[in-house]
Fold this sequence. Notes:
Blueprint: H1 2-29, H2 32-35, H3 49-59, E1 69-71, E2 80-83, E3 89-92, E4 98-102, H4 109-119, H5 123-148, H6 166-195, H7 201-204, H8 208-216, H9 232-242, E5 247-252, E6 260-266, E7 277-282, E8 288-292, H10 299-304, H11 307-312, H12 317-343
Antiparallel strand pairs: 1-2, 1-5, 2-3, 3-4, 5-6, 6-7, 7-8
Transmembrane segments: 12-30, 129-148, 176-196, 318-345
Keywords: Membrane, Transmembrane, Transmembrane helix
Protein name: PepSY-associated TM helix domain-containing protein
Amino acid sequence: MKTLDLLHRWIGGLMGLVLAVLGFSGALLVHKDAWVFLPHGSDPVVQDSAAVARTVERIMADPDSRPEMISFASPEFGLDRLRFADGSGAYVSQAGDLVTRWNSQWERPELWLFDLHHHLFAGDAGETIIGVAALLGLFFVISGVILWTRTRKTFEFRLLPKRPSRSAIVRQHRDLGLVAAPLLLLATLTGAILVFRPVAVLILGPGAPAQIDASLKPPQAPVALLSKSLDWRAMVETAHARFPDAELRSLALPRKQSGLITLRMKKPEEWLPNGRTTLWFAADSGRLIAARDASRLPAVVQLYNMVYPLHAAKVGGLAYRLVMTFAGLALTLLGSLTLWSFWFARRRQPIRRPQRAATAQPSNEA
């Protein structure tokens, strides 16, 4: 138990800042659609295939200014988002009218906050650090519950410590951590799975990573250059005809050497915000190459597709968003106060007072 306590304190002291950043940024991102205020942001989503096709045709009309990806409006956010190859982007109305444009993510708080939470502004290296932090978060939750049992009789829930002293912070940390433990376990486990797919073995079984990779792999297709004149309307109509009950979620141009235009849709039974129902079209002709129905994926893959919605509170409505907000803020407090108590709020040494001499004073009497 002593060794476990030592590991819990030292690793927490070293990783507290990362966990606090992840917790706070995650709590803000859960409500992103509510605090991004832009014209037409609250417009009802349009899913009429003819209207969507007209918008896609308008956006893709000029080959020299095409975005590499269109993320279509959702019931929570009424604007289409465009992403360009040079890192710039734009929001447009569902009719294709420009609302705002930016040259880098630093001009949009929701974009750099997303990058902070997912990559720590450090690309793949930052994502790896986040994955390690998530795994350590699992260790903190499990070891913290074990260590709490030693002092369970003194349990008293409080959001903030009574005093900024080390002892008060440790006590608040211990009891708040116990209350938030189930949610933190969910958040750290799903986060670790999203970064390190092999971690899915813990929940989905030994063969899960290979089955997920095989099921979500795009089809094989010859490399083809993107044509300057494609029938975008036909692609949208083909998608709606193939999956009439699904919502269009994104359209992406070929990346690297794929030669495929990817159109993702979301069926009503899917939890994933962008869905996994996917169609691929040839980049040179626009003909349909393959289509994947997410509802027919293996059960293991469908369970994996629920990981991100659970992590990011994309299901369950406002109630679940508030629950995960509490988890994020709890992680923020646990991480930041751990950092403070470990490095700055040292134990005060008792003041030693000099002892009085015990020798008797001579008497003045004769």
